């Protein structure tokens, strides 16, 4: 998708906002101002990080997450929304505490939200739905009274942030299940950056296809029973939470993945904020001060202030 195409889409989106809001795949345009790798991914030193908290045990192996707590968190005052963070890495690599994802965790905590960055089981040793059941378990763990009291989190206001493969898992949390967003593994707001959404073999680059098949535990898309269940687009319904979606025009996950997903969400009546950047930046590499401000504003609007 070229810049020439993005700009008219943004103009249509602005006109739509003036009338009844954006429709279809209408998108706003962003222009990330990233001067150097890591410029906007510095860890906030004022945030307290409690590392390696066990949230689940599978076959005797503990699964861990890190809690990033706001500097002025007062557990005796009213509970605030919590945000679960799911790292990327093509479902086969990445960690909760890598430099970029630790920076995301501390940034959201500095904005007032207790944030929880987790590790989950990875391919090829573990294929779908292993990693997804882990992130579902993390939501249920965070919603429990013990954690709500420990971290001052309101169990009825849990959001999720994910990028790339983590964005797929975040979006799947948002669209799986139906009904009440304040119980079980359901979440009340979703931010996904550069996420693969339809895993059935469409809108896919040749170099990413083997990684996707590896995660699904399949050799071909023609015979892959896991592809549809692992696709957030397959589960959209009118009870899904608000979404914030951002994507670049020329990156490893084709923009069409997000465009078609946004169309499906809006067709179901879901509140979606959709932003497109001209260029190749992928996932959290998109995060500059402007995008971070927009994401915090989205969480404030959908979950309440931190």
Automatic annotation (TrEMBL):
<dbReference type="GO" id="GO:0016787">
    <property type="term" value="F:hydrolase activity"/>
</dbReference>
<keyword id="KW-0732">Signal</keyword>
<dbReference type="Pfam" id="PF20434">
    <property type="entry name" value="BD-FAE"/>
</dbReference>
<feature type="domain" description="BD-FAE-like">
    <location>
        <begin position="76"/>
        <end position="265"/>
    </location>
</feature>
<dbReference type="InterPro" id="IPR049492">
    <property type="entry name" value="BD-FAE-like_dom"/>
</dbReference>
<feature type="signal peptide">
    <location>
        <begin position="1"/>
        <end position="18"/>
    </location>
</feature>
<dbReference type="InterPro" id="IPR029058">
    <property type="entry name" value="AB_hydrolase_fold"/>
</dbReference>
<keyword id="KW-0378">Hydrolase</keyword>
<dbReference type="InterPro" id="IPR050300">
    <property type="entry name" value="GDXG_lipolytic_enzyme"/>
</dbReference>
<protein>
    <recommendedName>
        <fullName>BD-FAE-like domain-containing protein</fullName>
    </recommendedName>
</protein>
